[in-house]
Design a protein that fits this description.
Strand content: under 5%
Number of domains: 1
Distance between the termini: 35 Å
Radius of gyration: 14 Å
Order of helices and strands: HHHH
Structural class: mainly alpha
Largest sheet: none
């Protein structure tokens, strides 16, 4: 639960909450991995399948270029 606090804290600071939340969430995702994203959050995503497809394609492209 500690890893989610940073995202909540950034959003609750006020001001530019969408940007702050996106940055905190992105960094938390990089550090903890996609499997740490709560299923309840994923279930609420619009076009979830499209997002996952693009994310996997980007990951595959990165790995192909890395080798």
């Amino acid at each position: 639960m500690l890893k989610l606090l940073s995202v909540y804290e950034m959003i609750n600071l006020g001001h530019d909450t969408d940007t702050a939340g996106a940055i905190a969430g992105g960094l938390a995702g990089l550090y903890y991995g996609a499997d740490s994203i709560p299923n309840g959050w994923l279930d609420q995503l619009a076009r979830k399948d499209d997002i996952l497809l693009v994310a996997n394609q980007l990951g595959d492209r990165y790995l192909d270029n890395k080798n």
